[in-house]
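Structure (tokenized):
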């Protein structure tokens, strides 16, 4: 584990306090159903490197480690990182976890993949360009952004809705290749069945 703890000032939410109070309705039981779907399609190659920004206490970093991927989880909440470290230690898994602002995180070596799950919808929409810059800078050209876009009509948040017209503007065709097939919707069982739309985007080379 590396890095220093930062407050939630940029995001307007004290995430550490939420974890300490065990007030985390965004957490799914087990892995997101899109993960085994993409895994069955061969999307996650053993030995490849994957970044999970805003990993929280999610099950996905452990799942990626068990699939043989080299996983890096980033979160600004120390309790979440402690939870991940304890989980990895208990299962004898290998992974790297960093306590820092994921929006400012830049890896020494770009990743093969980024897993976006309820992090983008957790940050204020004004911070979205920082999120896109982080995702683009963190990936190799040709790398994959596995994104689960939270659909929600109410303007308040978090979670802030990630309407698809806004996502298309945030992740433009000049920088990302979007899937040509319709996106699969996964209801979130603890967030009133709000749909998350699953998209695998490919990072284009920088222009
Ligand atoms: C809604 S939770 C989602 C956690 C996890 N992805 C999951 O699916 O359970 C949002 C997470 O983002 C983290 N977070 C919020 N802003 C962050 C930032 N700027 N840098 C790193 N982590 C951040 C919070 O600490 C929290 O763990």
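Design, position by position:
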């Amino acid at each position: 584990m590396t890095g220093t703890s930062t407050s939630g000032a940029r995001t307007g939410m004290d995430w550490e306090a939420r974890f300490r109070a065990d007030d985390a309705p965004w957490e799914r039981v087990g892995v997101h159903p899109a993960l085994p779907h993409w895994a069955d399609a061969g999307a996650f190659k053993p030995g490849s490197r994957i970044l999970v920004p805003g990993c929280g206490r999610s099950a996905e970093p452990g799942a990626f480690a068990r699939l043989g991927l080299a996983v890096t989880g980033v979160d600004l909440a120390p309790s979440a990182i402690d939870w991940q470290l304890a989980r990895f230690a208990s299962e004898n898994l290998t992974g790297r976890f960093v306590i820092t602002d994921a929006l400012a995180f830049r890896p020494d070596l770009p990743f093969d993949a980024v897993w976006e799950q309820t992090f983008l919808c957790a940050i204020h929409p004004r911070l979205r360009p920082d999120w896109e810059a982080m995702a683009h800078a963190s990936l190799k050209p040709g790398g994959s952004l596995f994104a689960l876009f939270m659909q929600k009509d109410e303007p308040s948040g978090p979670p802030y809705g990630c309407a698809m017209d806004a996502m298309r503007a945030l992740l433009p065709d000049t920088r990302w290749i979007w899937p040509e097939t319709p996106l699969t919707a996964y209801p979130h069982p603890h967030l009133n069945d709000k749909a998350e739309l699953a998209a695998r985007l490919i990072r284009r080379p920088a222009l």
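Reviewer-requested clarification: The pocket of S-adenosylmethionine is lined by residues 10-11, 15, 26-27, 54-56, 58, 74-77, 80, 101-103, 117-119, 122-123 (CB under 6 Å). The CA atoms of residues 51 and 114 lie 5 Å apart.
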